[in-house]
Amino acid sequence: MDDKKIKIDEELIEDKNENKEEKPNETKKIDLPKILESLNKRYLIFGLIGLVLMGLVIFKISSKKNASIQNVATTSQIDENSYNQSRIMRVDLNKIKSIDFDLGSSDVRIQRSNTNPYIEYTELFRGDDNSYKLDVSFEEGVLKLKSKVKGKQLYMKDKIPIVRIFLPSEGGIEEIKGSITAGDVKIDDLEVKNFDLRIVSGNISLNNGYFQGSIRNESGSINLTKSELLNTKLTTVTGDINIKESKLGNRLDFTTSTGNIIIDAKDTIDNYNVNAYLDVGNFVLGNISYRNITDGYLSDNKAKNNINLRTKIGDIVFNRGEGAKIENEEYLTKTSKVKDEEDNALEKNIDRTEKENKKRKKKKKETNQDSLENQNEESNDNEDQDLEKNSEEEENN
């Protein structure tokens, strides 16, 4: 019996030990899937992020390729219709008297030179069949420029032909005559006795100079700064005429169909006889503003200088804010006449009523005085009568 018990106890002990050894193995089997699950989630997240980044990179690369393909197409189209070569030419000038140019598409710069006078210009080429050149001649002080197009008229990417004329540092020239199809003109520090300029499209800037003559710009503005004008006609079809800090002489005519005329003259308004016409817009003369002067405005200051200002659509401003009052002015607008007549009628009515009121007051005063005098006389008569009665009664007694 004892041996059996011992065997049974030993078997129980062995079973317990086996169970103890099996439990850690079971726990290990349960933990591994959890670890794998957590690791799989992380890898999935990183994988998704990586896929998104890869997709973005691929998209950017493809978009860049498409853009480059499009750019190649556009540049090829531009190259087919543009000059691809340019050359700068230079001609020395000596004792220049006048300038005459007839250009297609080109900018023009005219200014003083610190060294010897010369001209510098650009020529454009595309092979041997297409070119934009200038015929330049300088004889007996006369500079002539004329554009010469071979083949078809092309343009140049990011570039425009330009003509630079550098004049002597002192003295003026007798004449500038020119026409441009498209381009800007800028002239600095120059005295020109006769000026004749025509532009189809572009802007004109004249700075610190003396000019007389004619300037016409079909599409673009005319800007003058710190200059002096005499016997000058400025005309634009579509564009503004701006004059700043300039001295205006006699016989000036500024006209535009659609645009503003803004004048800041050194001399005061009373130095000019102003004749202005405007269909739609404001007319400002000093500190006075009018609207739509369809029938015109005329001021005769008996001055030496005459100036005509005309625009169909736009504003005309002459020395805005100047406090000078213009005498002997005639305002020709129909509406203004009605207003003036109404104002005069009101003033007349006011004067009449004031006069009538004064007369009435005088009459009232006179009537009051008369009534007071009558009352005083009556009272005095009554007093006299009472005194007489009293005296008679005393005598009878």
Structural commentary:
With 397 residues, the protein is an alpha/beta fold. Among the domains are: 19-80; 83-180, Pectate Lyase C-like (3 Solenoid). The chain has helices spanning 2-80, 334-396; strands at 85-92, 98-105, 107-112, 118-126, 130-139, 142-150, 162-167, 173-182, 185-188, 192-201, 204-207, 210-219, 222-225, 228-238, 241-248, 252-258, 261-265, 272-280, 282-285, 288-291, 297-299, 305-313, 316-318, 329-331.
User: Which assembly state applies to the chains in this document?
Assistant: single chain
Q: What count of helical segments does DSSP give?
A: 2
Gap between N and C termini: 192 Å
Strand content: 35-45%
**What name does the CATH topology of the domain at 83-180 carry?**
Pectate Lyase C-like
Average pLDDT taken over every residue: 76
If you compute it from the alpha carbons, what radius of gyration comes out, rounded to the nearest whole angstrom?
Answer: 50 Å
